[in-house]
User: What shape does this take?
Amino acid sequence: MDFELRTIAYGVSTVVGVLGLYLFLRGVRGRNRGVRSCPSCHHLLADSNELRCPECGRLARSERQTLRTNRNRLSALFGMLLVVGSTFVLQQLSLGRANLLRGLPDSVLVIMLPYAGDSNSSTTSLGGGIHSELLKRLRDSSFELDAGRSLLDRVIKGDSNHQPGTTAWRAKYGAFAYALPRSFETDDPLLERFDEITPVVELQTPRIWPAGLPLVAQLTMNRFDLGDDPVEVAIDFPDGRTARFKHQKENRSRFPLAITLGDIAGTSETSEIPVRIITRYADGASKEHVAGIEINTDQQLIETLEARDSVEMQTVLLEQVFSHPISMAFEGSPPWSMRFQPRATRQEEAFEDVLVGLEVDLLHEGTLARRSWIWWSDGASGWETIFENEALLERAVELEGSWQLSLTGRPEIAARALIGRENPRTSYWGGSCSKPIRIMSRRGGMLPREWESMTGDASKPTPPPTPQK
Assistant: This one.
C-alpha cells in the first residue's frame, strides 16, 4: 500500500507541536500551583501548618515561600523548541520544500524499496519519494558502495509484485538498472552481474483488428546489460513454430518489430508465449533468460479496411515523407539507409481517418534492389525490411541509370498501424505511385538495425531478384 508521506508528516508534526506546547505551558506554570509545598523537595505540606518539611527537613523562611510555584525551565525550553520545529516543518510542507527522506542512509532506503511503489508514483508518496531520492543520489555519484551492491542485488531479483523481465519490474527497477553502473569502478567485477538482469520483452497486440487478416503483434525489448553484443530472441508459439530474431542494442531508432501471431488468435482471451533471450559471447559461452509473455488475443473485430486514394495524399507522400535520398555508407553493416518522415502527414486533413501501410520498392532501371514495409498513423509507426539484393545495393553509388521508389498501399501492412490506437480507422491509403530518388554516399557507418529476422515468414514471401538490365 502506498502511504502518502506528506499526510503522515503533517500528522506527526501536529502531534509534536501539541506535545511541545503542553511541555512549555507546564514548565512555565510549574507544579503544585497554589498548594503549600516544600521549596526544596516539593513535598506537599497541605496537611501541616508547619514550615519545616517532614520529608527533607528544610525550613521555609515564610508562608509565602511554601506557596511559590515550581517552574521547570528545562521543560519549558524543550517544549518551545518542539513548537518552533514543528511549525517550521509544517511551513516547509505547505510550500512543498520538505524532503523527508534526505536524512536517511542509502542502506535504509534500499531496505524500504521493495515495499514502496514504482517510478510512476507521486514524489510525495512513499514509493515515488524513495525512488526519486535513490535516483538523485545515483546521479550525484554519492551512493555508498555497500548500498550500491545491495541495490544491484535487489534490482536483479525484483520482488514478489515485480518479477524480473516483466513490465511491472521495468516500471519500478528499470531506471536503477541504467543509473547503477556509475556507482562502481570501471574494473569492479560486480559490473559483470548486470548480465544477470533479465531483459524486458513485450508483445503488444491491437485492441481492434480487421476481420480476415492474420493477427499481428509488435515486439519490443529493453536490455540492461552493459555489453553491446547482439542477442537472439526466440519465440516458441503454441502451434510448434519458433521465430528467431537478432536484436542490436546499439540502435537508437527504437522501431518495434511486427510479427504474425498465427493460430493463437481467437483461442482464448489471453495466451502466454515463452520467449527465450540468448546472449552469445566471443569465447563461446552463452547466457539464456526465459520469460513468459502474456498477450491479449481477444480483439474487437472490425470490417475489412476500405481502400482510399487521392492525388492530394500522393503529393504529401512523395514530397514530404520520402524527401531524403538513400544513403550509402563506406563502412558498417548494413551500409545503406532510407529515411522517411511519417510525421509529415499526421497533421494533414487528408489523413484524418486514414491508415498508411506501404510496400516500398527501391528499383534500379526496373530491377528490384530492396523491398520494405512501412506503416504509420498518429498512434504507431513501424518499418521492416522484406527483401534486399545485396549485390546490387553494394554497387549502388557507382551504377549508372535512374533509381525509383515505388509505393503501393496494402491493407495487411496498414492494419499494423492500429496497434496502440484506441479508436478504429476503417480506411487505408490504397493507391500506388512512384518517384525518382537520389543515391547519396556518406562517410562513416550506419547504425545497425535494431531487429533482424533469423527465420523466414510465410506471410511475407521473398520476391526473387529480377535479372539486371
Summary: The CA atoms of residues 231 and 279 lie 5 Å apart. DSSP finds eleven helices and 20 strands in the chain. The radius of gyration is 36 Å. The chain has a mean pLDDT of 79.
